[in-house]
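Quick question: what would this complex look like in 3D?
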Amino acid sequence: MRKITRRDALKVLGATGLSVGSLSAKISGIDKLMSGDGLGSLGIGMHESYAADLIKPGTIINSGNYKNFPQLKQLFPEHQYLRLKKGATRSDFPEIKVFPTRKIQLAAPEQKWKEKNRGVVSIDPKTKLLVNWKAGIPFPEPKNADQVTWNFVNRHWTGDSWIFDNATLIVVDRFDRQKTAFDARFYQEDLKGRTTIPPVPEYADNPRNILWRQTAVFTKPYEIAGQAVLRFRYDSLEKADDVWAYIPAMRRIRRFTGADVQDPLFGSDDTMDDYASWLQKVDFRTVVPTKVKEGNILTWGYPDRITDGYTTKIDGRQMLFPIWEVRPVYILTIEINDPTYMYSKRITWIDKETYHGLYFEGYDQRGNLWRTWTNGLWWTPEGGHNYMNAEIDDWINGTKTFQFMKSPGYNPTFSSKVFTKNFLKRAGR
Amino acid sequence: MTKHGKIKKLYCRCFSTGYIVCLTLFLLMSSAGLSFSNENGEFRITGYIQHRSEFGLADAEYNPDGYTMAEFLMNMELNYEYSEKLIFHQIIRARYDGIYDWRNYFEDQSQAEDELKNELEIRELYLDYAPIEDLNFRIGKQTVIWGETDGLRLMDLINPQDLRWGYVTRAFEDTRTPLSMVRVNYSIPFLEDNQGGFELIWVPTEFEVNKYPIDGSAYAMAPADFFNEQIQDILAAGFLPTVTNEKREQDKDNGQFGTKFTGNIFGMDFSLNYLYSYSHDPVIYFDGREMGGVLPPGFVGTFNMAQRYPRRHTGGLTFSKAFGRVVLRGEFAYTFDNQFQNLTEVNWVEESDYLKGMLGFDWVYANTGFNNGRSIFISGQFFNNHIMDYNDNIVNLPYGYSMKEDEQIATLLINTGFLSDDLKPEIFVAYDISYKSWWINPKLGIQYGSLWRFEVGANFFEGESGDTQHVPFAMMDQGDSAYVQVRRMF
């Protein structure tokens, strides 16, 4: 592994004929990323192999030249590849600037747990549940779809908890008009599988066997302000999620069913079961991993939350994401044997280093591609990662939702009281 | 110009002014609210402006046809968040119903016009104070809702209702009368896993009762005729009937107190409730006859009646539990010594415990091919009210019909969304099993952009004539209506 210097980056950009000045004027902080400043000292390097073999860093791809790069067909999911051709879909890609692929490592405690699990954790052949697992990525070198699935389920974002101080969702209708926008705050804490903040690996006092708990408080616009949702995910397969919502118009907390998490939020394309690619409970009786293969994807890169300092924008139906990287992925196919569930199949492109879903496809019960999610994540030098952007396309209805998430750094602290119904009442109006 | 012409001109001017003012407000409120923050906290103004036009579909003595409501309503919410611990909240509501400038549907609608044409009120004004995380005080004028029922109220007894702008056809959010009170919520730390908590309610002095549609308004109720026979007898005997309304002043003796314990066991949410309050509807007491006094010619004395609002103790239980795609829920309210009207009693009042119950379900039905995966929400409820010591002379007030020992109502609500929820059809049906009367409310919500919401709907009532014509839905048999509503949020 070699550090890429600013000089290297300039050379690459020069070869493409792009003015470095114009690029840096558009995207502040990118030069730092290109130079790798601050990465080498942290031991975070670049993956030369992806850059060299697949597509050169510095390459600019647009609708006029994409056919010059036949390897792109392997680097994009089918529907994303179509977006390179002008007018082929309703969401053409903007110009893509390929940056060097960086090695993104897990936080030290998570890396430690991952190594600790090597050769120790297994999957019960009957129940498909994990055996001897306490925390962390259970399979450092997964061999099959089941193992990749469990790695995905047990990944961490920013340690044992995460917050979105603010998440803005912008919904574009089928006529390309911005239909609505709403803001929310999110909190989540893992009660089991903890790696960093005591108690590790789990709360001793967890009589209801809660795996994680999550609260969302919607703050804008007026119509939904004060609505708040509390969700508990239980470890037991036999126990469905508990979901409660405070409804301001009713001035009371209402019990939701597990199926409410499949309905889009407030006319958007975002369902609670799709957060972070998917939050559907993994029950191998109905959620069946059927196929996994290794590959690469050209997608939004991981900006450094601390130093890159840029913001993403939308232009019509496109998210203008300034950094694109080739990322190594597992391409995991999950069949869902529940005819009442919104999807019959999920395909997820899972980052091999962070285990986050970078791209996701959901197919309806007739087998048609319904929704896709493209996720953008940031990373911190401590090894935390969290979602900062998402682009959700509804390929059947022609609508689109953009997400912009703001979140603090690694292991944010907040009170556990946000996971109480009393908090929902207080947050509500 | 005749007197009538002058009045008409004045009306037209007022009407035009009202429209211009509302239109101006529409234009001024062109952004999505107003908010600013500094080191002293965050201040936010949000709300909506709404126009609602209603049309009567049946011409009847008390419910006219044609244009019956031209309401402009502004609901403004002001929020000041000084810190996470201290938040101020205020709702101001202004209403102008232009219908009184548009038409006279009754010979005398002056009372209705005085009361209903204009309204400006500070609807809610309270502060939230959370000295510690588990404890929250909400102090001020506010609305508190208990219970699990939709559309009908059992344990939701704290705030009375103001039904003057529509009988059952307006949302509870608009019809509840906020009260000045203290609400305390406390999460019990050692029961956090079971979501255990207390709520305490204390209304120190305020006395408010239910308000019903008044004569001369589009929703006026036909007077209860159970009383007519008795009044005729009284008059024939030479007694002048007098009715005093003993609606109390604001006083510490009016205090209401309630407590609720909530929790979750075996995945089931429950609440145990107790409320010491007073009836929001009056009971008519016979206070005896008095001979002599200053009386109109032909009368020998007075026949004295008094409308009183008796105290009551109510205990309640609610529960809800999810089973896959279905939530089962229930609610029971038991009022001790509830006072019923019984004209065969000496003081016309009979006491009996009164049990009201509801069992219901919410079903999120996934019809994966119907509207691109948007689920269909189906909710059913069955209500049963049981008079523990029943007497067949018991009469309901204010409606004035003979009550049955058990009275049942069933409701069904179905809604879904199309085109990413741009179109939201809904139908609500309530069937009074005991008195064979209906209320059907279909509506269609239309979403346009972030700020505009449209709604068209109708309310159909159906009931049998005769003895049961005054039961809640049947008495509106001639009151079918349709409406359009436009809301602009800011």
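Answer marked as accepted. The longest strand of chain A covers residues 287-300.
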